[in-house]
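> forwarded from #structure-qc
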């Protein structure tokens, strides 16, 4: 397989027509590679050759290249997530269509929906609260948190603990939340080694548990129970086993593998963690690609 088909054509009649034609060519190539991979004709080793054929400029300047290079050592790093949040596109015209193709996929749209889901959740849960304690686990770029604080008339109402193992993510998050740092405690630690004497109204973790197998999922969720205030809530995000049209694209083109789970699997894992069925509910975001397991400590 060659990379000739990946050469993005130059605009001819109009930028819009050019973009649509280019997007169709990219989509055709992506589908051909996915089909070849499933038939055993394209290996991940072959994908490495394909990416080298793109050239260093492509790998450096596109979201696609960022995902493959993993400059911070892991898939779905804080900068990748923030580029998705901000609908980042390359400055170079030849690469912009690739970023646009990326952003049109269901999974990036679901990640953007995840941010809005969190913001709405915080608006709902903070109604009537003079003081609210949030534990944000695997907080990443924390752009969603900055937008929550920006919406508050009295940001001192919200006291947040952000846990992330990546020092680069924490530095980036601090820069985005500069105006709210008096109300945020950033903790650089692997969450499996994190312990808290503090209790929280809400524990939010949208992009972590689908990196965990079932054993680690249950281990951490059991621990979270001890960190909740009476009437508190845990919300866990996980990619949907039953619906993710982007899964093959993520795995083959992004080398980004997650534990996808069904609604029932999330409920089963929560009950194995010691919670009762009446405490549990599962909601999707609009794309139905991300599911959110809600665990409440009271019936109200």
């Amino acid at each position: 397989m060659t990379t000739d088909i990946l050469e993005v054509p130059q605009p001819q009649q109009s930028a819009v027509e050019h973009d649509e034609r280019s997007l169709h060519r990219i989509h055709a190539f992506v589908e051909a590679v996915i089909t070849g991979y499933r038939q055993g004709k394209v290996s991940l080793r072959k994908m490495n050759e394909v990416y080298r054929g793109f050239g260093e400029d492509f790998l450096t300047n596109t979201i696609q290249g960022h995902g493959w290079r993993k400059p911070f050592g892991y898939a779905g790093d804080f900068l990748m997530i923030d580029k998705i949040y901000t609908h980042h596109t390359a400055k170079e015209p030849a690469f912009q269509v690739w970023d646009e193709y990326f952003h049109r996929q269901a999974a990036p749209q679901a990640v953007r929906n995840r941010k809005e889901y969190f913001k709405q959740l915080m608006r709902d849960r903070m109604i009537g609260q003079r003081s609210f304690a949030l534990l944000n686990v695997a907080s990443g770029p924390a752009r969603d948190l900055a937008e929550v604080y920006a919406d508050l008339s009295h940001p001192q109402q919200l006291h947040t603990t952000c846990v992330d193992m990546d020092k680069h993510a924490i530095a980036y998050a601090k820069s985005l939340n500069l105006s709210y740092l008096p109300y945020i405690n950033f903790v650089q630690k692997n969450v499996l080694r994190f312990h808290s004497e503090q209790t929280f109204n809400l524990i939010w973790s949208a992009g972590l548990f689908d990196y965990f197998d079932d054993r680690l999922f249950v281990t951490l969720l059991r621990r979270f129970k001890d960190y909740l205030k009476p009437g508190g809530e845990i919300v866990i995000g996980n990619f949907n086993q039953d619906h993710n049209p982007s899964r093959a694209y993520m795995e083959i083109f992004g080398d980004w593998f997650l534990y996808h789970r069904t609604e029932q699997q999330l409920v089963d894992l929560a009950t194995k963690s010691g919670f009762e069925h009446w405490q549990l509910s599962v909601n999707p975001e609009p794309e139905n690609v991300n599911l959110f397991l809600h665990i409440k400590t009271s019936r109200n």
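QC bot note: The longest helix spans residues 15-38. The first strand starts at residue 132 and ends at 137.
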